[in-house]
Design brief:
The protein is α+β, with helices and mostly antiparallel strands and 112 residues long. 30% of the residues lie in helices and 14% in strands. It has a two-stranded antiparallel sheet with strand order 1-2. The radius of gyration is 15 Å and the shape is globular. The relative contact order is 0.19.
């Protein structure tokens, strides 16, 4: 069984620790509108429901055949910025791990 390193994104054995010494910091400037939305009850409820339905990262599973269950986040398939009307659409939300969510960013392209 394998997993993805939460720091560098490398695929490693599940029971091993990655040898990377990456000190990656993410400087994400989130607007107050986005921050307010992501802390809203409606978003939290939708995100929690999606994580209960899919308790693993969809991208890791489809792309790498790895089950990742840590640091799961809701990801807008069509970006929040470009499609604000779809921000609470269940069909527009995928469950991704933190690493996959950061790798994809605001892109509306699905690579899995």
């Amino acid at each position: 069984m394998k997993k993805i390193c939460s720091k560098c994104g490398k695929i490693i054995e599940y029971n091993k620790t990655c040898t990377c010494r990456a000190n990656i910091t993410y400087n994400r400037n989130v607007s107050s509108q986005k921050r307010k939305f992501y802390s809203s009850y409606a978003w939290q409820k939708l995100r929690n429901r999606k994580v209960q339905e899919h308790p693993y990262c969809e991208r890791c599973w489809k792309k790498y055949k790895i089950i990742t269950t840590e640091n799961l986040q809701g990801h807008h398939i069509k970006s929040f910025k470009d499609y604000p009307e779809l921000r609470l659409s269940e069909d527009n939300v995928a469950v991704l791990c933190r690493v996959c969510n950061l790798q994809i960013g605001d892109s509306s392209e699905v690579d899995w």
